[in-house]
Amino acid sequence: HLEKEFGLHIKQLGIESIRRNGVVQVRQRLANAGTLVKRDEVRQILHDHFNAEFDARFVGSKDAIDRVPLDCLGPWHQQHAGRHEKLAAQALWMGDVTLPIYAFKDQFSTFVPYMCVLPNVRLSNTIGHVFLDFVEDYGCVPIQLTTDKGSEVGDMIHCHECLHLHAAADYTLDQWPSSRQVQSKHNTPIKGFWHWKWDGEGHSIRQAIFVGRDEGLYNSNNPLHDIHWQVLNWLWSPLVQQHLDEFRLYWNNHRLSSQKKKVLQQEHLHATYGLLQTVFVLLHKIAQLPWI
């Protein structure tokens, strides 16, 4: 009897309408038509006749990104750059107090060569200066720089292209692009790293900042707010940077766990492939490959 009533309901609403609707909507429409059915019975019938549509309606199934193992030639082939704003003004809700972070991460080894706290990570000239500081510290540039599509990376990309052409004129941009801009959701090497950073040090830093707010030591509504937030940024920036340096030291010296589907190096120390001597040896081997 139930199957018959359900068949009549399908004819009335149309198959496409049924496919778009979930259990609750179908059950309500049956009730409006005078057929009272238990939720479990409607669910079972929908699974019997429209099982594939259940997966299509699942929240996480829409616009799902196909994930494939990352691959590259070696260390310093691709450096990923990105910003982290869990300690920025939009996240802290403490007026002008802001402590955003910017970092670089090697795709091959997951080595993090540079990570710093900045007053603003959305200014092109700021990020350009950060990149030049990074290059000055290591005395070299990666073959390719991978970033998000934000406007803040313009100066950095231009500087990197100039340094790329100056340092390795034989590596033409057509064959070896100096940069690549992708959507944030596709810049997974650096975006995935922020999860570990946040779980490792981020929560403790954020909670320490909130102690001052919750106990009234800092009040964004205070008439002296302009002085207070400047003092807070001046005091907290070196403290946050100290925590970033400690976490970067830990990250670069912990051993990677084994992953079944991983193509790149695993079960090694990140810092091993951050050494420039190793990079030079690998780049020399790459240059000897017959297809280059």
Rg (C-alpha, Å): 27 Å
SSE run: HHHHEHEEHEHEHHH
- Tell me the overall shape: extended
Report the top-level CATH class of the largest domain: Alpha Beta
Total of DSSP H or I helical runs spanning 4+ residues: 10
Largest sheet: 5 strands, mixed
Number of strands: 5
Q: Determine the strand fraction and express it as a percent band.
A: 5-15%
Keywords:
2 domains, 292 residues, Integrase core domain-containing protein, extended, Nucleotidyltransferase, domain 5, 5-stranded mixed β-sheet, 10 helices, alpha/beta
General description of the model:
The protein is an alpha/beta fold and 292 residues long. 51% of the residues lie in helices and 8% in strands. A five-stranded mixed β-sheet has the order 3-2-1-4-5, sandwiched between helices. Helix 7 (154-167) links the parallel strand 4 (144-147) and strand 5. Helix 3 packs across helix 4 (39-57), helix 6 (124-138) runs parallel beside helix 7 (154-167) and helix 8 crosses helix 9 (225-253). The chain is extended. The model has no long low-confidence stretch (mean pLDDT 78).
What does this entry show, briefly?
This is Integrase core domain-containing protein. This protein is α/β, with parallel strands linked by helices.
